């Protein structure tokens, strides 16, 4: 069944404003040409994160100058809520990283004499005051990940606790504004430096850390007793290995997806049911260019969202591990693929209640994208799919996905009295109907084939 639907998505038109896309469009985009770019990768922007409270949604994006927070609740009137200058600013800055815990935002950078900054987000949408700014624990970090169940923050790389850092853990649970060191792995764990060593990024659930350790591969560490941590799984040899950059655990806990930040290498999908025997079960990617590079990836349900550098945002349906396929993409970048360069889409955040997706592009800034319509369907709806019309209700444009299509397929729109309002033809090269000439109300759209087969759906126009 999935292979059939894969074919359906191959002919769906792109609905973007100007970029290459599939089932996705840009709802909002922001950049500031006055901001300087980095001297290393020509990137003005870096990580993206999201936050919501009291029914309002916020986008958080890093730049060479600091942290920018936007209220993106109403995309027709986006508000710049606050800007927090970084301790280090300008062209030397490439990386900033973010995570949230108990209405606080945690900020790190990985260049210069930087610091850990903590913001109190409870004052939004008015402001986001800095309540902590110090390098006493963390001067630099490449990535941070907060295990919210335990209230522990994992800091990867950089300079922390007075020396070079491989991985350190800090307790936020007692006081989110005053972190305390739990363990410095390279100094407190005898086995660390000779095995795991530098951790580029980490995903943690229930004190179990999936450590993405560059060319050394993947290590899974039990931190339930931090000072007596132990390696409980590893994958050090696998197909298309490169620089193991980042990964994310499937919500079901059985699979781990990770990305090698290496030109031409695809995403890895591993079965982690038995951590003593981690096995690769699939390789997949954008397949756009020999120099395509996956960067960061996040699961939401069975859907894997990936920031894919030059290629933009890519979205994969992983509900059937025997047939993982692309359900949507949006190319945020106009930079040409090139060996040795890292440009384009940096990060992605898919957890806003609205379903909108936040993405950051290193040169183009903040994007707010719609969710591919496929992700809103349950398994039964997917299997029953013959004809999908969205958005429904619609404000005037109606997108069609159908397995009913042939060269002679016609459509007919009728009102509640059965009066024919609009007719026409559709084909694989036309899947968006312009209905702005119709008044608001309830209608029926019917697809008809020359052999007499027909199928109808009820639609609502606002």
Structure report:
- With 462 residues, the protein is mainly β.
- It folds into two domains: 2-376, Methylamine Dehydrogenase, Chain H (7 Propeller); 386-461, Sandwich (Immunoglobulin-like), CATH 2.60.40.
- The chain is 4% helix and 45% strand.
- The strands form ten sheets. Strands 1-29-28-27-26 form a five-stranded antiparallel beta sheet, with no helix packed on it.
- The longest helix is centred in the N-terminal third of the chain and has 9 residues, at 2-10.
- It is globular.
- The two termini are 34 Å apart.
Rg computed from alpha carbons, rounded to a whole number of angstroms: 24 Å
Query: How many domains make up the 3D coordinates?
Result: 2
Count of alpha/pi helices? 3
Q: Classify the fold: give the CATH topology of the largest domain.
A: Methylamine Dehydrogenase, Chain H
Overall geometry comes to globular
Share of helix among residues?
under 10%
Distance between the termini: 34 Å
Mean pLDDT: 90
CATH homologous superfamily annotation of the largest domain: YVTN repeat-like/Quinoprotein amine dehydrogenase
Instruction: Supply the CATH class of the largest domain.
Output: Mainly Beta
Strand content: 35-45%
| Class of secondary structure makeup | mainly beta
Largest sheet: 5 strands, antiparallel
**CATH architectural designation of the largest domain:** 7 Propeller
Order of strands across the widest beta sheet? 1-29-28-27-26
Overall number of strands = 39
- Looking at how many chains there are and whether they match, the oligomeric state comes to single chain
| Low-pLDDT residue spans | 1-18
């Amino acid at each position: 069944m999935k292979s059939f639907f894969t074919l359906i998505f191959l002919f769906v038109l792109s609905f973007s404003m100007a970029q290459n896309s599939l089932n996705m469009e840009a709802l909002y985009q922001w950049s500031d040409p006055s901001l300087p770019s980095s001297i290393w990768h020509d990137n003005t922007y870096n990580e993206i994160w999201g936050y919501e409270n009291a029914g309002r949604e916020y986008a958080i994006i890093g730049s060479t100058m600091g942290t920018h927070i936007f209220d993106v609740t109403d995309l027709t009137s986006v508000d710049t809520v606050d800007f927090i200058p970084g301790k280090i600013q300008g062209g030397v800055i490439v990386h900033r990283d973010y995570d949230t815990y108990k209405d606080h935002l945690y900020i790190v950078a990985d260049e210069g004499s930087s610091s850990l900054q903590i913001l109190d987000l409870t004052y939004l949408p008015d402001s986001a005051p800095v309540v902590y700014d110090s390098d006493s624990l963390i001067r630099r970090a490449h990535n941070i990940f907060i295990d919210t169940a335990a209230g522990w923050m994992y800091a990867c790389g950089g300079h922390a606790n007075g020396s070079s850092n491989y991985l350190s853990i800090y307790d936020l649970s007692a006081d989110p504004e005053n972190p305390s060191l739990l363990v410095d792995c390279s100094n407190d764990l005898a086995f660390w430096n000779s095995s795991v060593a530098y951790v580029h990024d980490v995903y943690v659930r229930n004190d179990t850390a999936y450590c993405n350790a560059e060319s050394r591969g993947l290590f899974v560490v039990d931190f339930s007793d931090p000072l007596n941590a132990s390696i409980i799984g590893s994958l050090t040899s696998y197909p298309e290995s490169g620089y193991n950059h980042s990964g994310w655990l499937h919500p079901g806990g059985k699979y781990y997806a990770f990305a090698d930040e290496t030109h031409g290498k695809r995403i890895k999908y591993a079965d982690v049911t038995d951590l003593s025997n981690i096995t690769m079960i699939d390789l997949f990617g954008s397949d756009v260019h020999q120099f395509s590079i996956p960067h960061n990836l996040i699961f939401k349900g069975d859907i894997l969202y990936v920031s894919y550098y030059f290629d933009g945002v890519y979205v994969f349906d992983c509900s059937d591990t025997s047939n993982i396929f692309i359900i949507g993409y949006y190319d945020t970048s106009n930079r040409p693929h090139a060996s040795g360069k890292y440009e384009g889409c940096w990060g992605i955040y898919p957890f806003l209640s609205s379903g909108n997706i936040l993405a950051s592009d290193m040169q183009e800034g903040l994007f707010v994208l719609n969710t591919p319509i496929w992700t809103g369907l349950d398994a039964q709806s997917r299997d029953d799919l013959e004809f999908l019309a969205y958005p429904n209700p619609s404000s005037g444009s109606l997108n069609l996905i159908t397995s009913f299509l042939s060269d002679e397929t016609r459509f007919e729109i009728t009102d509640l009295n059965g009066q024919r309002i609009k007719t026409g033809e559709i084909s694989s090269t036309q899947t968006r109907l312009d209905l702005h000439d119709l008044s608001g109300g309830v209608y029926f759209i019917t697809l008809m084939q020359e052999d007499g087969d027909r199928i109808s759906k009820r639609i609502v126009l606002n």
